Amino acid sequence: MLNMAFKRAHSDEEIDTLALHLQSLRTSGDAIRPWFRKNRDVILELVHSSWSWDAIARALTNAQITYRTGKPWTADWLQADFWRAQAPLKGYAKRNRSQTPVPSGLAATTLPNNSSQINATASINATASSNVSTGEAGKVQSEKPAPRFKAVSIKPFEPRRPQTEGELAQIEQNRMHAFGRR
Fold first, then answer.
1. Which of 18, 19, 21, 83 is surrounded by the fewest CB atoms within 10 Å?
2. How far is it, in rounded angstroms, from Cα 83 to Cα 42?
3. What are the residue boundaries of the structural domains of the chain, listed by start?
């Protein structure tokens, strides 16, 4: 059995007070998982202090912060759903844009606000021909060559060719070596 610290049981008045506080953080029509993401710090602060998942579940149910079914929260269900809401959404994972490669020629190109005054194509071509680009704060960085990929051709289907006498003899020899004589 696990040896874990138990948190004190909160009275109904304390749970009602927490329910009013949580209800004030919610606007009508908010979906549950985005609300969990938005109020992550509040809920984690409660959990890390003296509040149990069960007490928070009861407060959320009292505040009527539930799914449309109105099913009351349980500690296990709340905890699982809360952590599931913290996972990055598909396609919205935070990307470190500083590590993404910048296309050659566009790194040093800065167009003025009125782009009609400059020929953008000439500016891009001029910077693309240089081997050096300026990064953040004017630091000079040398560009790495863009990776090259070989063209792919799909080979048409060919039926299996018959095996030669030498190949058949080698297969038989391997079979006899592995399984013994029959």
1. 83
2. 14
3. 12-86
